[in-house]
Amino acid sequence: MTLWRDRIATDPAVCHGQACIRGTRIPVAVVLDNLAAGLSILEITASYPSLKPEDIQAALSYSAEIARERVPTLPESA
After folding, report:
1. Residue 17, domain CATH
2. Which residues does 10 contact at the CB level (< 8 Å), separation at least 6?
3. Considering the domain boundaries, does residue 9 fall inside one?
4. Which domain holds residue 56?
5. How far is CA 56 from CA 1, 3, 20, 51, in A?
6. What pTM value is reported for the model?
7. Average pLDDT over residues 1-15
8. How many distinct structural domains can be found in the chain?
9. Each residue of 12-47: pLDDT tens digit?
10. Residue 74 lies in a domain
């Protein structure tokens, strides 16, 4: 299982500090919006070629962490 902390980070200079897939400007919220709209992992990765299926799983794991009402700490982008 991929740890979401390995794939999600924040950077105040990228997307106004929103949680994004590491190395991209794709916010986690965009991934989750696509999943909520019923898109498959294949459809999402076709629309965002820089994403890997593991990134989508990381976005889900991150959202589950938030749903547990904990405040997760995010690593800053290097």
Report:
1. 1.10.10.10
2. 17, 18, 19, 20, 74, 75, 76, 77
3. yes
4. 4-67
5. 12, 11, 11, 7
6. 0.83
7. 87
8. 1
9. 999 999 999 999 999 999 999 999 999 999 999 999
10. no
